[in-house]
Amino acid sequence: MAVTHPSPRPGELAGAGRSAGAGPSAAGRSAGGSAGEPAALAGPVGERKGPEGPLAGVHVLDLARVLAGPYAAMLLGDLGAEVIKVERPGSGDDTRQWGPPFMPTGDGAESTYFLSVNRGKRSVAIDLKDPRERAFVEALVRWADVLVENFRPGVMDRLGLGDDRLAELNPRLVRLAISGFGEAGPDSDRIGYDQILQAEGGLMSLTGTAASPAVKVGVPIADVSAGLFGVIGVLGALVERASSGLGQRVSTSLLAAQVGIHTFQATRYLIAGEVPGPSGNHHPTVAPYGVFDAADGPLVIAVGNEDIWRRFAPLVGLEPADRRFATNALRLGNLAELQRILNEGLAPHTVADWLGTLRQAGVPAGELKTLDRVYGSEQARAENLVWEVDHPLLGIIRLPGNPVHYNRSAMTPGLPPPTLGEHTDALREALLSRAQADGR
């Protein structure tokens, strides 16, 4: 059963009126609820306007910084959760200084990097090590359903926020910990940034070409994948809490996330004993599947099965039953010759011409696009892949939207990325006055 308690109404907290996302509800907190639920755990601290997301009513305390943890917290906010981000006074999250590009705000500037992973949050600027902030920190913990942190193992204990203390303050709290290398083993104390884990997790050994091996992915894939796996873990823990009534610790790492996305490359080694190397712009186990040269630029073609091969081969002057290329294994065995023939066959026509021809023939193909063309495309607009929010200093800004769609629940951007400490005073007053009213 859900227990609701009085809470500030829209507009009573700084930033509440700038919301555009899903709003908390008693129903959203009902899973696993009981009449004994602490009063400080129920009710929003500032309503969000608009239709409700599937996590409406869930409260997230984001103690993380840089990318993996903040990204996970942002995704939970996209799903309708209310998120409070705790930052260091003065400097804030590290990524506030990552740039250029920076967007000028008059007295200062906002990092576009920070803006990319912090929408849908309120910002509190406090020193977690300051004993004078202990009552506020504990009020935030009692308020939360989910706590996200990406400190090195042991830091939370030194802050007085170890698992035992968190469970004492809030038995229903789901605690997500994201580290670089994991919580056990000889590397558990190492600091892990994205490219370090792209390298140590084997991903860079799979990218690049023979001429330029070990190339990193162009986005922080180690951080992003760890954040995604962390969100999956949190959602599972929230479902389990509905029956047990208890929170639990959820942990993952950038290293583990890289292993989690190795897929067929992992089984090439674990089962077949092959150590994969860089495969460049061509698939290592499927052919033809990669980048080829049309008259005016690169063209990506994916012949993923024999039916597609039979449709594709005649378009480039080949017989599907050619003894050199009749099966996928034969095509891989004669890959250099196949690629030469394809590049010669594709060269007379433009990318646009080939895209039309291949689409009509049912052969998967695509062109190489820069980000301006991606975000400016009709397809991106049709899929609502760009969200707009009203930033308190920058005005209307555009952000990459969440890629998930529900047919009943809403997915909206909610609050804009916050300025540093924008909501500290309002949230301190709201949560500490509530704690005092509850006798804490």
- Numbering strands along the chain, what is their spatial order in the largest sheet? 5-2-1-6-7-8
Number of domains: 2
Radius of gyration based on Cα positions? 25 Å
Q: Biggest sheet: strands, sense, closure?
A: 6 strands, parallel
Low-confidence stretches: 1-44
* Gross geometry: elongated
Q: Mean pLDDT, rounded to whole units? A: 89
Number of helices: 17
State the end-to-end distance. Answer: 23 Å
- Number of E strands: 13
CATH topology category name of the largest domain? Rossmann fold
Outline the structure in words.
Helix 3 crosses helix 17 (424-437) and helix 8 packs across helix 9. The chain has a 6-stranded parallel β-sheet with strand order 5-2-1-6-7-8, sandwiched between helices. The model is unreliable at 1-44 (pLDDT under 50). The chain has 2 domains: 16-261 and 414-437, Rossmann fold, CATH 3.40.50.10540; 289-372, formyl-coa transferase, domain 3 (2-Layer Sandwich). The longest helix has 24 residues, at 221-244. It contains 17 helices and 13 strands. It has helices at residues 68-78, 112-116, 134-143, 155-158, 163-169, 194-200, 203-206, 221-244, 254-260, 264-270, 306-312, 328-333, 335-346, 351-361, 371-375, 378-382, 424-437, and strands spanning 59-62, 82-87, 102-104, 109-111, 121-125, 146-149, 174-179, 249-253, 289-294, 297-302, 365-367, 386-391, 395-400. With 440 residues, it is an alpha/beta fold.
